[in-house]
Amino acid sequence: MSVRTPDPFNSPDEPESGIPAQGPTWLTDIELEQIRHRLPILYVEAVPVHVDGFGRVVDVGLLLRGTALGEITRTIVSGRVMYGETLRDALFRHLEKDLGPMAFPQLPPSPVPFTVAEYFPLPGLSQFTDDRQHAVSLAYVVPVSGTIEARQDALEITWMTPAEAASDDVCAELEGGRGALLRAALASVGALP
Amino acid sequence: MSVRTPDPFNSPDEPESGIPAQGPTWLTDIELEQIRHRLPILYVEAVPVHVDGFGRVVDVGLLLRGTALGEITRTIVSGRVMYGETLRDALFRHLEKDLGPMAFPQLPPSPVPFTVAEYFPLPGLSQFTDDRQHAVSLAYVVPVSGTIEARQDALEITWMTPAEAASDDVCAELEGGRGALLRAALASVGALP
Amino acid sequence: MSVRTPDPFNSPDEPESGIPAQGPTWLTDIELEQIRHRLPILYVEAVPVHVDGFGRVVDVGLLLRGTALGEITRTIVSGRVMYGETLRDALFRHLEKDLGPMAFPQLPPSPVPFTVAEYFPLPGLSQFTDDRQHAVSLAYVVPVSGTIEARQDALEITWMTPAEAASDDVCAELEGGRGALLRAALASVGALP
Amino acid sequence: MSVRTPDPFNSPDEPESGIPAQGPTWLTDIELEQIRHRLPILYVEAVPVHVDGFGRVVDVGLLLRGTALGEITRTIVSGRVMYGETLRDALFRHLEKDLGPMAFPQLPPSPVPFTVAEYFPLPGLSQFTDDRQHAVSLAYVVPVSGTIEARQDALEITWMTPAEAASDDVCAELEGGRGALLRAALASVGALP
């Protein structure tokens, strides 16, 4: 059966089942599962935004998804960095995966993230949790100027103003504590109320 | 006689002689001269760059100018913030002034500069000097994607790789100690050798 | 009469009445008043924090003040940069002015602020307002490790957790829209819920 | 024989031979070797500095080490982040490992590094190389106020001014391309000439 719960953190990062692993740098699901309990896993995350002609953020894009349990959750662009892959390549790959090939993201010239988010399996060590693993994520605000195409597994993007995005209601819908990440993204561009 | 040395820091910021001052927010040359010895003056500066599709800086643009004394000096985009003007508006105005209307600068979403440069009339307090005034400058790296048109007073732009721009020779040609500013700009985008 | 309302933005920046102006770099109240409508005025601001042994922010200090109208307002350390003064000197001077000589502030090694706040007399251009002037403020998070002594004009400091400080109630009590500044400060240190 | 060359990148990160692995979160040398070719490994790095009372960087500390081949190389504090460990804990652990227990490092309140360095086994993808692995390092400037004690394997610390540290000679002695990292550290604190 292929009713696979969409991986809430990082779905098509690894080759789907049925696709042979692509050499030593790709991990099978089992290998990845084992490593996830041995090492922190490096992620990149991106908050897509629309900017005006002066670079001001006018809208924020949040991904909307129905889980296998029928819940609606929100998230941002997120995924693992592969062996041998630069951060920029990983960021671009995940933006394309989640927003489609016509989103035209403008990756920032600086490699410095607006924040570093630490996800732990158990709450308490940080604001962020991920029950699958210890992940450390470099998070960026990325302007997009093109057309968004939701990818196949029912992911949709909702655009809202910074004030709407920063609201308690919206932030509570973000998984893994990413409401705090979204607010930090808005603060970094001077758009948090 | 109107053979006016092009203001090495900030030329057409203030209304040119002959143009009446535009209300209380514009300063006459005399007023500005007086205030410059009473208060730090706020500036914005921009290092124009070309980026590739992944946001990596591939080229840096330096402005080239012949002074009235026949010297060739290099500089970056630089100018004063006016009363009532936002930093973004000031940055955009000075980019357009120095690079022309078709440069298509992409102002950064974040208002945080890569560095804050402090210019003092006398050397020793900081790396930067400006014999006319105490100026504090918020400096940004700004990707441009369009066509540069040198403005009338013989300002030309030279594009070079980050390694060339960071060289001792080029940095020594930048006025007011801005070689250090250029290197800090390159470091902020991970492009300083 | 000298019952002077403590200047809500920047009180003892200028020489107190009775002290003669210290040469051309100090401004009389009248001069400052005039210039404030001609140029953006450069400020530094600081959010005092307590950190633990690992640099984590555990408490935030907000200044409490009773206004002449009997209102209680909150604010942060804030003041003007003088002519010829470095940003670090100005920051240190205002920290000492508001927190006393035994606060032992640890100024950050980097001159880059966590945000740049733009204050305009009229609302709408930015999140921040100051009816006296157009001010541009470089804002820093500054750990203090010593003892705070409220200065004479009834300024008191209240320490609270990041979550308390970020609450709507507390942020609404900050003057000039500085609730958004406080939240941005917390976001910059990974402490905004 | 156990004359083990001090691991130039990360030595006492893993339990030394003879000490039993401490449960599933610690990796044997063989396991780590395998994983290093499958995933990017997360590191933290620190440039120790001395600051004056205003936070200005006055000296930079570089670690000096004789390799098994009799070469002298320089490096900075550097080490792996373990499973379940926060970035701050890892940073503190490596600072203590390399500088001794009395260095009194002041970890920055912000989790945002001054740069992110990407180390690849082969040159060309970035400025940094590490022939053992693909590592991604979050790099910080860390003031220390105490006494440095070189750890057992002949590591010594040399203090020099920012200008000396940024020189071509010194930067060429840093391993893995970290001369560029050192310059970026200096630029981030406004101390790169």
Query: What's the assembly state of these chains?
Result: homotetramer
Distance between the termini of chain A: 47 Å
Share of helix of chain A, binned: 10-25%
Helix-strand category of chain A: alpha+beta
Order of helices and strands of chain A: HEEEEHEEEEHHH
Largest sheet properties of chain A: 8 strands, mixed
* Strand-residue proportion of chain A: 25-35%
Q: Regions of chain A with pLDDT < 50 over 5+ consecutive residues?
A: 1-23
Q: Which of globular, elongated, flat, extended, rod-shaped describes the shape of chain A?
A: globular
- What is the radius of gyration of chain A? 16 Å
Q: How many runs of DSSP E, i.e. beta strands of chain A?
A: 8
Arithmetic mean pLDDT of chain A: 86
Which protein chains are joined by the largest interface, and how many residues does each one contribute? A-D, 31 and 31 residues
What's the number of helices of chain A?
5
Description:
- The structure is a homotetramer of 193-residue chains.
- Chain A contains 5 helices and 8 strands, in the order αββββαββββααα.
- With 193 residues, the first copy, chain A, is α+β, with helices and mostly antiparallel strands.
- In chain A, strands 1, 2, 3, 4, 5, 6, 7 and 8 form an 8-stranded mixed sheet that branches.
- Chain A is globular.
- Residues 1-23 of chain A have low confidence and may be disordered.
- Chains A and D meet through strand 5 of A and strand 5 of D.
